Amino acid sequence: MNRKILFLSLCASLALAESVVEISPVSVIATGVKESVLEQPLSISTKGEKEIELDQVIFQKDLLNSLSGVRIEQTGSVIGHMTSIRMPVNTGPYYLFMQDGIPVQSSGFFNHNGLAYTTFQSASSVEVIKGAGTALYGSDAVAATIDVQSLKQPSKEKVVLLKGMGGSYGYGLGSAEVSDAIDKESGYRANISYMHSDGWREHTKTDRVESNFRYDKRVNDDNDIKIIANFSKTVAQQADSFNNYANITNGSTAASDDPNYYTALQKTDVERKFDYARVSVQLNNYRYNDLEISLIPYLRYNRNRYVATWETNLPSNDNEIYTFGLQQRNTYEKEWGKIVFGFDTEYTQSSLKYNQDFDITTTGWGGATYLTGALYDYTVNYFAIAPYIHTEYKLWSALIVSAGLRYDYNSYSYDNKLADNSYDASGRYYRPADRDDSYNYLSPKLALSYFPAKDLNLYARYANGFRIPQATRLYSVKAGYEQINLDPETSNTYEIGLKKSFSKKTSFELAVYYMTIEDTIIRDRNTGGYRNGGSSIHRGVEVTLKEEISRELETAVAYTYTKHNYDNDPVLGDNEMAGAPNNIANVRLFYMPDALKGVTLQGEWQYVGSYWMDDAHTVEKYDGYSIGNVKMNYNYSKRVRVFAKITNITDKRYAVNARYAYGREDYTPGDPRQFYAGLEYKW
């Protein structure tokens, strides 16, 4: 069953070993079973090892921004990021971030920088479901599900790989990887890397460590086991954005143009710290004909520390989370189709300390005096369980119907460590009394695929999704919202698509979607509290074209047109939402000259169109940006690889994020031109 599919996939990948672009990729993210992307009735984008190797990933955007409909923008903390997939760029919990098929954070404890928890700099592949997830995924899988794969399978012979890379502004990376077979039935692969950058702006120094371990063992004909461990640790200084666009155009390297930022630096460490560790054990059983039984218990640790520079009083946050989780999945396959069923469950213990580290009196809007001490101090025990079923049935050879159903139960048990129903000295922070909250939700999915030819898939899909309120929205309460009671947000995704392969040399994918989100959890700008708001409508067209033009030339084109609007909002009407460019494109050309064996060159163009800077449309649109990158990979021999890249080759000065809020403009500068080069040695 799955072993046969895996074997055929391996043969296909070996046959196309010289190709950089995966013309006929396979994916596992939708159902846990490796299948051709062309055959699946939903929009899935993938990137394989060879293309990732050429990208020389430094930031999350390097891994993902070449995929249609995907926009990742780095924030002032460098490794921090915001995501835009079928939504405006935002920090909300509309995305399920995973590594090796396991979420990197519990629903209800969403960190918009969640990709920093993954070992993205050493990823072997990545997959993205756009739109609400399949029945295998619950809360947060509203606009997209992203799965970063850490290590590929262990090698049959011992392999040791050392890599060094250097670049502009004090960038340096060193990594080591080793893999070997222990015996005929087992093997391992492990890697570790350390990255340092001084940053091109003041106060943007970054240090990061990543490490992965994988052990595979075939116990007998009926059982195998896979153990994976991931670890990442980041310390990243935080620069501020600019309020004066002149600092963008003149290429200022200052950390901010706001004097209050430098006052903050004198009082506290303005930086982010991400700590992450996870170990999982996957047990697979094939004893029963046509049935695969999989059990994956895992332990996970997250810690997120930062100074909240967007708050005028500059409080510090320390959120530590321990999780035990279990995924149980059963896959039954026959000629007529397949059934995937099982359940996911997690138990999480979280502690949050939100402190005022020094006395401060703020001025202007919302001015107050804040005294040193705890603002919030509480723990939350979280429990989630979700049974699901996904079915695929061949009505006849050319028509396949897919249906799924998932029931999620999520509960919080909140324990306040400060005086119940009390306020801090400023009267701005409210600490609710102990309480329990729970949510349950049933989400259906339905899709239809029609194959008029083996290499053509016409599909239609409906998927319902949701996301529960985050723990911080429920228990980190501002004055004026003492009786807060939030409902989950719900979404409906409607999608039609076409996938076509041409003689294994060209693939074309088109997806047209319409998504609604209701009961949105929004922030009240007058009080800083949260409440359920109205609804929004998200529409778009996603196009992917990959082509092997000749032995020497390949191309990959990703284009997206989107419209994101409020739906009859009492204040904003049907306005187009801020931070939402209508047009996004990425075009790549790969050149592998016969005259220079082992050399691969890539030219890349990244385009982000204009967009509104605020929801009320009180200021002009930001123009967006367009930049070019050049990358090179040279396999000098079987042992030695040389690689290099130049990013933003024209040294364009632009903002990766532009907004208008609280009466002023705000611009996050994009990176200037930078140079990188490296050497890899294998034996």
Chart the SSEs and their pairings:
Blueprint: H1 2-15, E1 26-27, E2 35-36, E3 44-47, H2 49-55, H3 60-64, E4 70-74, E5 81-85, E6 95-99, E7 102-103, E8 125-130, E9 144-149, E10 159-167, E11 171-183, E12 186-197, E13 206-220, E14 223-237, H4 246-249, H5 259-267, E15 271-285, E16 291-307, E17 316-334, E18 337-356, E19 360-361, E20 369-370, E21 373-396, E22 399-416, E23 422-423, E24 429-431, E25 435-453, E26 456-467, H6 471-475, E27 477-478, E28 489-502, E29 506-518, E30 521-523, E31 530-532, E32 536-548, E33 553-566, E34 583-591, E35 599-608, E36 625-635, E37 640-647, E38 655-661, E39 664-669, E40 674-682
Parallel strand pairs: 6-9
Antiparallel strand pairs: 1-2, 3-8, 4-5, 6-7, 8-9, 10-11, 10-40, 11-12, 12-13, 13-14, 14-15, 15-16, 16-17, 17-18, 18-21, 19-20, 21-22, 22-25, 23-24, 24-27, 25-26, 26-28, 28-29, 29-32, 30-31, 32-33, 33-34, 34-35, 35-36, 36-37, 37-40, 38-39
Report what the structure shows:
The protein has 683 residues and is mostly beta strands. It contains six helices and 40 strands. It has a 22-stranded antiparallel β-barrel. Strand 25 and strand 26 form a beta hairpin. The protein is globular.
Concise structural overview:
This protein is mainly beta and 683 residues long. It is built from six helices and 40 strands.
Distance N terminus to C terminus? 35 Å
Spans where pLDDT lies below 50 across 5 or more residues: 1-17
Q: What's the β-strand tally?
A: 40
Total helical segments: 6
Helix content: under 10%
Radius of gyration: 25 Å
Q: Give the averaged pLDDT, no decimals.
A: 94
Strand content: over 45%
3D shape: globular
For the sheet with most strands, the description reads: 22 strands, antiparallel, barrel
